[in-house]
Queue: 2 jobs
Job 1
Amino acid sequence: MNKNLKAWNRFSEEPAPGLEEKSRKEDFPDGYTVAGLIRGRAASPGVATGRAAIIRGKKDLSRVGEGAVIVSEKASPDLAMVMSKACAMVTEYGGATAIASGYAREHAIPAVVSVAGLTTFVRDGDLLRVDGTRGIVQLLVPNI
């Protein structure tokens, strides 16, 4: 067994040495590539791809369509009304025990929380791939 792997702290936010997930073509819709990547804290496991729906308040809840990725500064109880439509959730603030994390686990959707600069990185309608197991949010753009 690799010495580095033996010494790897399983509570580390980084993946174990030598176990990096290789990018596979089938991970992304045809004709798309990763344009940017931001990291946060893994809150609910799984991987999902969908269009971003930026929620700043109650008035924005109608933006969440079927298969959308909820993007918010922080979670609020109002989000519970639209969680069943979402394929994933990402918040700028919060932790693994935050309300957003609990909602995501209840609805069995991937979630990443505590993503610094999230609301400046993502725009409404962007295609996002959320990896709630590794705490990664990827911005996908069409190939040119």
Job 2
Amino acid sequence: MEEEQFHAQPPAVYTSSMQSSRNERKSTTTERQRLFWKTAIVCVIVVATNVIGNYALARGLRQTGVIESWSPVPYIEAFVHLWVAVGVALMVVWLIARLALLTWADLSYVLVVTSFSYVLSAVAGVVGLRENVSWIHWLGICLITLGVALVARTSPHTTNNLESET
């Protein structure tokens, strides 16, 4: 009879330890989810600003014509072209977002996952700029996509120290 009562009500120390362990697991899971969403959102910003920024630069510079000069003046004049100015502004946003991403995510993760911008830039070049892309380039683009898909399934942070991410 006494054994049944012992199993029905575990000691308070044991119960407290179990609750603490559950809270730690819940906290770690919440931190992982927060890290996942934060990383996903900033990766989308990095990729989008890179693709749109490079597209705008290419479109604007094609409209300004070839610049063959050692003088900085023609390059500075190109900045006043609307497409070039938009491209430069987006590339500044890209750099800031990428710097932020690198403060918490591993370089080996960031470089691979954000390389998806190469894939989308090729598509933007074909669709928006009427570029011709060879089959060997498409093969390379497929390999990049496969690499991105593989690495995106992993954690962006390989160390156990999550304290620096707050």
